[in-house]
Amino acid sequence: MTTADPLIIANRTFTSRLLVGTGKYKDFEQTRQAIDTSGTEIVTVAIRRTNIGQNAGEPNLLDYLPADRFTILPNTAGCYTAEDAVRTLRLGRELLDGHNLVKLEVLGDAGNLFPNMPETLAAARTLVKDGFDVMVYCSDDPIQCRMLEDIGVVAVMPLASLIGSGMGIINPWNLRLIIDQSHIPVLVDAGVGTASDAAIALELGCDAILMNTAIAGARDPIRMARAMRLAVQAGREAYLAGRIARKYYDADPSSPTEGLLPSTHS
Question: Is 24 a catalytic residue?
Answer without folding.
Answer: no
